[in-house]
Amino acid sequence: MKFKFLLIFLFSLFFARNVFCEIIVLKNWEMHKGDLKPEEFDKENWQPTEKTYFEHISKTNITLCFRTRIPDIKAKDLTLNTFHFDQYVEIFLETNFIYSFGSKEKNLSAFGRHFVDLPEDVSHKYLYIKVFSSFQNIGFSYNVYLGEKSDIFRLALSKDIDKVVTSVLFILIGVAAIFLAFSTETQFFSFLSCGIFSILLGITTFCRTDLRYFLFTNNAILWGYLELLSLYLLLSPIAYYVYLLNEKEKNNPFTRVIFWVVIVDSVFAISIFLFSLVDSNILLKILDAFTMLLMGNLILGVIDTLYLMILKKNKEAIELFSGMLILMLFSIKDSLEDLNILPRMGFSAYWGLLIFILLLLDILRRRIYNIHRDLKVYTRQLELDKIYIKKSNEELTYLSKELEATQKEVIFKLCEIAEARSHETGNHIIRVSQYSRMIAENLGLSEKDIRLISLASPMHDIGKLAIPDNILNKPSKLTEEEFEIIKTHTTIGYEMLMKSSHELFTSAALIALQHHEHYDGTGYPKGLKGNEIHIYGKIVAIADVFDSLSCDRVYKKAWPVEQVLEYIENEKGKHFDPELVDVLFKYIDLFLRIRDRYNDKFEFSEALSTL
After folding, report:
1. Would you say residue 15 has pLDDT above 50?
2. CA-to-CA distance for 590 and 587, rounded, in angstroms?
3. Whole-number Å distance between alpha carbons of 260 and 47
4. Is the dihedral of CA 442, 445, 450, 452 positive or negative?
5. Which CATH number fits domain 23-158: 2.60.40.10, 3.30.870.10, 3.30.750.24, 2.60.40.2380?
6. Which of 112, 333, 379, 531 has its CA 20 to 30 A from that of 274?
């Protein structure tokens, strides 16, 4: 709400800028070349002059004196108001000194309004203004006003209302652009350069308003320094913006040139800033050099923009050129007003710059819009791809489960055949698989190891397929030669399974080879002991023996559980790994539950389906 009232106030000032109480414009000026002391004012010859400001004069370090007679005026709290002294001024009423500004040693801001309090009785008295300049410009370039302080104050603000509004807008737009630079992941440097350019332009513009004196400080040296320094720093960010505009265009001959222009502009700005810390006068001394650099930037920018617009059909270049054209038209209009070719309607180049910056931001807005549009399309496509991938994964999961089930069934069926040749039931390999899984889980092995051992353990006796029936099923005691043949089922099974590179079969090969090794090294085929035996081999060894002893076989009856446990306890550290014996004793209830669930009376195919 406050912002709304502020806008209403500013625009009311803008449209009522010339409606005031009694304000007199002092005219009929006379001039004297050279310095005069107050007592010499009425003794010298004074020449009428129509001009009070002179540019590009051949001499420097000169003094000019001006005078005029104040007309009849009846008002209280009188204030004199003038504008634009280049360096140093003294003001006298008759011979009485009333005001001074500036320094003969330091260069101050040329843009500054001066308010001089006057006594009540000034009618028909002479006002003397003495100015000094060490440069090629001297005098005061605008009207001198006389009136009540409140009227003069409103006049000063109304004259600057366009600069005040545009400077505030420049700074707000710049801050918004920098905020967007840090809040968006794209076009960071474009937004940043545009924001810095806009803020610097706002500072330069604000330094040319009288509001600076009323809000902050009347230090003209500081305002002059800020005004020129921010002006000199303008070139780098806008040149970099144009470089970024060119960067995405391939085979653009201007890209490298503009890159070096950015370097030159940046070196110029940094150098001027550092030198100005030592001598602030440098800012005025290099004004002509800056003007030449500015013109070079503008010419190159226009040529590059035309190249992109005409030859590359770049839509952004069309918008950029439109902004340049609007700015040039406003600048030409102001120049024609200064030459008195057009009636003075106020300085409007600031509005052209404002439109130019808004067009720059609009280019970035369109870029972000295009990126977001493409991102939206990409996101939609990604969602479709995710749906497709999810569906494909579901199908793959189903196929994987089917494949695993088929693989498991083939393995168990094959092992059932091997067991059947020795008159064993297929449920033996199911129980060994379940015992092995349970031991692996309680040892804290990984999910991968648990899965591998549960699928690979049924193949521990696969090598028996190569053992002759007369030896494999011999009812009487085996001879030494026959037992040696029986022992070969471990190496035969290993060689059969190692022909595959699949991890499941290499694990099964290891189990087939080592499930008859003993912890103390008395087993076969290699006599391994302790940690030389793989954990898979040690687990299957105790699971196989527990099942063989606790279940019926064709050649024997099942041992009582107490006898089985006593045997295993006696073989602790001999046949079996002590740690695995401890796990069996700790979870003996689970072992017995598995034994009873998958007993030999249970159909193998039905038992297999429950795994």
Report:
1. no
2. 5
3. 53
4. negative
5. 2.60.40.2380
6. 112
